[in-house]
Specification:
By secondary structure, the protein is α/β, with parallel strands linked by helices. It contains 11 helices and 10 strands.
Length: 266
C-alpha cells in the first residue's frame, strides 16, 4: 500500500484475534475499488498469520457497509465490485472462524459480507435492506451467500421488494446470529471469540465445512463419511491433545492465555 493512498481498511491483532475494520465513514464504507483492494490485503494478512485464530470484521461510523460505491459504478466501465466475489469466497471458506461485528446499518452488497461470515452480531437498532431492485440492478453476487442464510420466503420478500427491515427480523430470518443492545455489542463479540479460541484450529476448520456440506449428502453417504472422519479426528494429534487436556483439567495447548482469563467464552 503506497504511503499516499488513503487507508480505508485498518487491521490489528490482539492475541489470537485479528480485527479488520472498514474505515471509510465518509461514504458509509461503500465497496469502492480501493476499499476492496485493501480489504483483500487485510484478509490475506489475517489468514496468513499463524498466530491469528479468529477474525472479526467490523466498521466505523453509523453504517457497517452501504454496498457498492455508486459513484464509481455510474461511469459505465467494469464494475468496481469485480473482486467482490473472491473476497466473499475467502471469508466463506476461511479455515479461521469469522465474526461480523456490525457497527450499524447494512445495505445491498454489505449484506453479502454479513452472510459470508460465520457469526454476525449487530446493534438492535440496526436496519437492513436489499435495495438493488429499486436501482434497476439485481443482488446477484451477494445472493450466493445470502440465499444460503435466509429463510426462502423471507429471501423472496426482501430481495424482491427492497423493503427495510430491523435487526430482530434479521435474526428471525437467518441473516444475523444475534441482535443486542448497542452497549452489549463488544461483550457479545468477545463472548463468541473467547469460545472460538478454545476450539482446536483443525477441528474448527473441518467443522466449518461440515456445517455447509453434510446437509447436502445423502444420509447413508453422510454416515459413512462422517464415521471415517470421526475416527480420524479422535486419533489425530490435535484430538489426542484435547482429550489429554480434558483429563488433566487444563487448557489445551492451542488455547491462548487470554481465552482462559475471566468468564468470557466459558
Amino acid at each position: 500500500m503506497s504511503g499516499s493512498q488513503d487507508v480505508l481498511v485498518r487491521r490489528e491483532r490482539a492475541g489470537g484475534v485479528a480485527t479488520v475494520t472498514l474505515d471509510s465513514p465518509h461514504n458509509r464504507n461503500a465497496l469502492s475499488s480501493s476499499l476492496l483492494r485493501q480489504l483483500d490485503d487485510a484478509l490475506s494478512w489475517a489468514l496468513d498469520d499463524p498466530g491469528v485464530r479468529v477474525i472479526v470484521l467490523t466498521g466505523t461510523g453509523p453504517v457497517f457497509c452501504a454496498g457498492a460505491d455508486l459513484k464509481e459504478q455510474r461511469g459505465g466501465g467494469a464494475p468496481v465490485t469485480a473482486s467482490f466475489p473472491d473476497i466473499m469466497l475467502r471469508i466463506w471458506e476461511s479455515p479461521k472462524p469469522v465474526v461480523c461485528r456490525l457497527n450499524g446499518t447494512a445495505r445491498a452488497g454489505g449484506l453479502g459480507l454479513v452472510a459470508a461470515c460465520d457469526f454476525a452480531v449487530a446493534p438492535a437498532t440496526a436496519s437492513f435492506a436489499f435495495t438493488e431492485v429499486r436501482l434497476g440492478v439485481v443482488p446477484a453476487m451477494i445472493a450466493v451467500t445470502c440465499l444460503r442464510r435466509l429463510e426462502p420466503r423471507a429471501a423472496a420478500e426482501y430481495l424482491l421488494t427492497g423493503e427495510v427491515f430491523g435487526a430482530a427480523r434479521a435474526v428471525e430470518i437467518g441473516l444475523l446470529t444475534r441482535a443486542v443492545p448497542e452497549e452489549d455489542l463488544d461483550a457479545t463479540v468477545a463472548h463468541y471469540t473467547g469460545m472460538l479460541l478454545r476450539g482446536g484450529p483443525e477441528a474448527l476448520a473441518i467443522t466449518k465445512r461440515l456445517v455447509r456440506e453434510v446437509p447436502l449428502l445423502p444420509v447413508d453417504e453422510g454416515f459413512r463419511a462422517m464415521a471415517e472422519l470421526s475416527a480420524e479426528r479422535f486419533t489425530s494429534a490435535e484430538g489426542q491433545e484435547g482429550m489429554r487436556a480434558f483429563a488433566e483439567k487444563r487448557p489445551a495447548a492451542w488455547v491462548p492465555s487470554e481465552a482462559t482469563a475471566g468468564e468470557a467464552g466459558r
